[in-house]
Amino acid sequence: MTQTSKAYLAIVTQIVIVGLSFIFVKEGLGYTDTFTQLSHRFIVASLGMVSIRLISKNKKALNLQMVKELLPLAIFYPVLFFSLQTMSLNHISTLEGGIVTATIPILILILASIFLKEKTSILQKSVIFIAFFGVLYINIMGQTEASNFNLWGTLLMFFSALSSAMYTITAKKVSKKYDALDMTTFMLLFGMLVFTIISLFQHTTGIVTTSYFEPLTHSPYVLSVLYLGLLSSLGSAFLSNYAIHHVPASTVGLFSNLSPVIMILSGVIVLNEPIYSYQIIGILVILIPIIGMNVIQKKLVKTTSVTPSK
């Protein structure tokens, strides 16, 4: 298997993990607040990452130069992405948030062309925009009742989406010097530090009245934190950093459109939620152009490889 094929497999696996994570986030929030869950999640992820580094050949220690160069990466994701998303959802609905989040692939496409000088074909641009409208259609049709537009909440969610796009661009740049293991380690440790400080501040000031450790006495919560920490944080971050290193940033953005597809299917399979005709239509609008583009590109590669040189 080529490095590019491994990168595509990493992207798809990461999207599946993230798509399933909403089930465990929903489960965990039944026991505690958002930042306490994020704190526990990133502590588990960091412990897992440290354990991996101890048994791996990579014994490189974090130094000041590494911190300076990787700090923007960790600020964009996970800190700004999760913090802005959390604050946004206090003002707008999840569905409204989903509409704004659907702009991430387009933002990556624009930013990659500006900062990375990546060139994309008309076919790739078309697929990104068609898939965007598929996600948009699912979210709009899923609105069961009209809600008042909230500019502040929408802006916060947009900046959360922008943070995710900037993370992809920044990761592509720093991946030329650092491997996925180093990038993931710093992201998780920095996330753990920031989210734990925020959580402890909320507990000590009385913003959150429950104990910081009380949720850990419930086995369903522990299970959700283990999934979110080891798979959704550690696993998905490593897979994402690995993929970004080997394929264009715009390609990574394109595949992120698959996330709502996984969310819908996991809700149907795991939670026995109903699936509606508009969701099926939206899924097809997302999947068909992505699959079609890959089939066309494979045929072009084969045609090029068998064409004799003159």
Automatic annotation (TrEMBL):
Can you give the residue ranges of the EamA domain?
6-139, 151-293
A Gene Ontology cellular component where this protein is annotated is:
plasma membrane
Which ranges does the record mark as transmembrane?
Answer: 7-26, 38-55, 67-85, 97-115, 127-143, 149-169, 181-201, 221-244, 251-270, 276-296
The membrane-topology field of this record reads: Multi-pass membrane protein
One Pfam entry name: EamA
Keywords linked to the UniProt accession: Cell membrane, Membrane, Transmembrane, Transmembrane helix
**Could you tell me where this protein is found in the cell?**
Cell membrane
Concerning SUPFAM superfamilies, the annotation shows: Multidrug resistance efflux transporter EmrE
Q: Which family does it belong to?
A: Belongs to the EamA transporter family.
Name of the protein this chain belongs to: DMT family transporter
